[in-house]
Amino acid sequence: xKICIMTWEFPPRIVGGIARxxxxxxxxxxxxxxxxxxxxxxxxxxxxxEEIEGVKVHRVKxxxxxxxxxTWTFIFNHFMEKLVAILNREIEFDVIHIHDWLTAPVGxxxxxxxxxxxxxxxxxxxxxxxxxLNSPDSLLIDGLEWWMTYEAxxxxxxxxxxxxxxxxxxxxxxxxxxxxxxxxxxxxxxRKVDREAVKRRYGIEPHEKxxxxxxxxxxxxxxxxxxxxxxxxxxxxxxxxxxIAGDGWSKDYLEEEARSTGSQDKIRFLGFISDSxxxxxxxxxxxxxxxxxxEPFGIVALEGMAAG
Length: 308
Hints:
With 308 residues, the chain is an alpha/beta fold.
């Protein structure tokens, strides 16, 4: 089977869980003897085309930019659509597979000009992420999400709770939705790590406990609730450092929130770190916190369990 997976993020571009999901899925499909082509966005230093463990990765050069994210999304969908059309002349894909609303336009267009079935994987929906549809942008994204689920032959949901949301918000028939839970490769956590060396790397003393958050710095992830809890935790446990690994548009607000606690010396904002560093840090931590206000199935929780 020849499969075309379309995703806006794919390693080394890692924004959230979709990149890791698509990377793991595509490698697993190759092991099932599928011919897998991933169409994704360019990234500095990454080749336009490469083959990774049998997965053929095509990176699209985006020739126009725009400061508005939604406008830019429609721009990169245009360039992705051109590349998929070119690939479709040489490769007769059997399935088109998209992930979330960010690749809905290219996926739907590809469905019609290739005359092949569209599969849509829904990792979360806007009404949950934004805690309501309270802006024109949210209403537009909500419409795109409905559109991609309507056009899909089948919709893959990452959890039963996500399936319930799709049935109730978009009124999808239950038989159209297949629940396939997220997964992680536990083998990368099955190695010895010098925990003291990892702690020293981030300015943490060997005797101190590490409380770790991993994820995008956006309201959906609830980092502010962790920060507000820190003074209460420190009343009982002084030898603790709180490590925030990730980046996002709420970073400045969260750093100010950290200063307002009076405990900023106990808090480390690391920004984006590599997967290798992240694995070592997860193994070396004592507590992993997932304070999300909305999380249909966070991969980070699985990674924490895999790290033990």
